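thought: user wants a sequence for this fold. calling inverse folding tool.
action: design(structure=
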């Protein structure tokens, strides 16, 4: 039953983003999952900051969307593989940016993993975990990470009232997580050297930046809109 439910969720989101990515326009909508392009830009900047030096690193962008983050990592010297569920988006990215390896598929599908040429030094999972089983996906991604590597994620915070409304709108197909739950997940994974997270809260005045970020801590109990986390794997 669980596998059947996962296939149903995958089909739902694949169709949802096939429509949303192109809509009625000739140009694609490149800031899906975000309220606007400025929120997307800041989120990607925070991810790159947390990733650290990327030159010479093998990087996986899990759930790459239109590939802006993957292309940024490549421009900073990383060797990048990027995965997304949308065949149409991945096909267009392959034609435009052949320097990156683009893979279409579901990361929770065991047949996709052998195509990724893992392991990786850096794994980016930004605005993706809400669409997949969170614990199982982090366990899978952790196995793809080299010793000494790190995984960087941004995920909806279950303590945020705005997020709760989105969860209700999509039912069980859209997930959120608390900081405490993330701690419990990573405690079960082998070789976690360090886990840090911080909250991303919308500013009342977004003239400069959309998000206000709080300090890195071992967990988060805030009602921030998003949680950013970084987990380091022991060498």
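)
observation: tool returned 235 residues.
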């Amino acid at each position: 039953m669980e596998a059947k439910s996962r296939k149903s969720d995958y089909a739902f989101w694949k169709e949802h983003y096939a429509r949303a990515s192109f809509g009625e326009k000739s140009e694609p909508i490149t800031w899906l999952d975000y309220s606007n392009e400025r929120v997307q830009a800041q989120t990607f900047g925070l991810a790159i900051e947390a990733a650290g030096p990327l030159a010479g690193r093998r990087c996986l962008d899990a759930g790459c969307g239109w590939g802006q983050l993957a292309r940024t990592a490549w421009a900073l010297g990383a060797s990048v593989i990027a995965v997304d569920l949308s065949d149409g988006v991945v096909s267009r990215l392959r034609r435009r940016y052949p320097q990156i390896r683009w893979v279409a598929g579901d990361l929770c599908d065991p047949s996709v993993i052998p195509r990724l040429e893992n392991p990786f030094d850096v794994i980016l999972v930004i605005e993706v975990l809400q669409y997949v089983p969170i614990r199982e996906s982090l366990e899978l991604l952790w196995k793809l990470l080299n010793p000494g590597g790190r995984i960087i994620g941004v995920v909806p915070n279950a303590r945020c009232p705005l997020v709760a409304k989105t969860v209700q709108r999509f039912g069980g197909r859209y997930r959120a997580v608390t900081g405490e739950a993330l701690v419990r997940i990573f405690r079960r994974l082998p070789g976690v050297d360090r886990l840090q997270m911080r909250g991303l809260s919308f500013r009342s005045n977004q003239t400069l930046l959309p998000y206000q970020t709080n300090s890195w801590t071992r967990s988060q109990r805030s009602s921030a809109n998003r949680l950013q986390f970084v987990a380091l794997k022991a060498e």
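thought: summarizing for user.
answer: Here is the designed sequence. Residues 2-233 form a domain with the Rossmann fold fold (CATH 3.40.50.150).
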